[in-house]
Each structure stands twice: as C-alpha cells, then as structure tokens.
What we know:
Layout: H1 13-40, H2 46-54, H3 62-81
Amino acid sequence: MYLTRKFHVEGTDQLERLSRSSAGLWNRICKWYWRTAGRQDHWLSKTATQRWHCKKHESLPSQTAQAVADQFYDAVGSWHESDRQGDPPKRCDKTHNVLRWKSQGVTLRDDGVLR
Length: 115
C-alpha cells in the first residue's frame, strides 16, 4: 500500500531551478521522441528513453528524471488509448514542470521533515 501526501511548499530558488531543469528534460525527451517517430517511423520505448536521457542528468536526481520520462510516456499512452482523438502531448517548450518524486527518491521522517 502506498501513502500519498501533498505538501504546499513556498517557492524557493532551489525548487524553481529543479522545476526549470525538469521542464528542460521534458522538452529534450519530447523533441527527441517526436523527431525519431516522425523521421524514422520508429516508436521509442520508455526504457530506452530513460537510459538515453535520464541516466546522467546534470541537475536532477535519477529518480526524478525517470519520473519526468514517465510523465511524458503517460501522456503519450493516454493519447494512444483515446485513438488519437484529442491533441497529442505538447510539442511546445515548457518553462516549468510539476515535480514528482518516486518513493525511493524522497522520504518523510516522523517529525515531518521531507528528505
């Protein structure tokens, strides 16, 4: 069983940097994915994308970088499941992205401190 909690955290420089870095990774994955799919007619797997883009990302922890790739592939999967009725996932550049951490990347101590 997973416990999900939401925290309202005031914006800090560090969170802003992480959000911008997360958006930069989203943009890079998105461009790479659509260029490969469009030019080579080859759909890329999530695992290949994570290996290529997330393994040595300069400013995000690896779990957070993988979560960004998961977000993108969830968006692509949702688009495919709806028989491509709606708009595809955004191809435009994002300036900020919502950060989601995997459970291995973040822990909540008993005293309420997020680590």
